[in-house]
Specification:
The protein is α+β, with helices and mostly antiparallel strands. The protein contains 3 helices and 11 strands.
Length: 201
């Protein structure tokens, strides 16, 4: 029971840290009330005319003798083009890991509920949490669902018949994944996935 509470707390901590980071990058973060596999839906506005992300244009007009604010669906840059809503769906997994013989390394097991190519808008965010002198440090690994095939064999029967498939990563406190796979390379976690917030764009 105590372990379950601890997992819940660290999970919420990871999601909170992720939410703040996404908000800083201009994403609106929407959290699911019921866990159905997608934890966050995040959105941004895109102007097809300016070819860039934009805020909504806020117009001020006089109404009944007072200056009133009106939030429009127009681009804040060109003020004439309707914005498109760009949406991404995230499954988030957070872990504090299990200590190893080395003080600066831990084993992290991530248990994704979605293990298939779900298209361009569905992403995993795996969060490894380490203690430090200034609090906790989060390392974010962000990748599309189709990228699982870079480091795991999705053709295994266990991917089709059980919900217990786990990926275990040995991670240093610097965020470096040091797994050595015989069939697959885990270097993608360092070269491609680590702090890969650009993938969401």
């Amino acid at each position: 029971m105590e372990d379950d509470v601890k997992k819940l707390v660290i999970g919420l901590y990871g999601e909170m840290q992720l939410s703040m980071r996404l908000h800083e990058l201009g994403w609106q973060v929407h959290r699911a009330y019921i866990d159905e596999g997608i934890d966050f839906t995040i959105t941004k506005y895109w102007c097809p005319e300016c070819k860039k992300y934009s805020e909504q244009y806020i117009r001020y007009d006089s109404y009944k003798g007072q200056n009133r604010k009106c939030v429009t669906n127009l681009c804040n840059s060109c003020k004439k083009t309707e914005l498109n809503v760009i949406t991404r769906h995230l499954q988030v997994k957070t872990s504090e890991g299990i200590p190893t013989k080395k003080a600066n390394e831990k084993n992290f097991s991530f248990h994704p509920k979605i293990r298939y190519d779900m298209g361009d808008t569905v992403f995993y965010v795996w969060i490894a949490v380490f203690p430090s002198k200034i609090g906790k440090i989060c390392h974010f690994y962000i990748f599309n669902t189709k990228d699982v095939s870079l480091f795991d064999d999705t053709t295994l029967d266990t991917y089709q018949i059980t919900d217990n498939q786990k990926t275990t990563l040995k991670i240093r406190d610097t965020g470096e994944v040091i797994n050595k796979g015989k069939k697959y390379s885990y270097s993608c976690f360092n070269d491609k996935f680590y702090m890969n917030f650009e993938a969401l764009e």
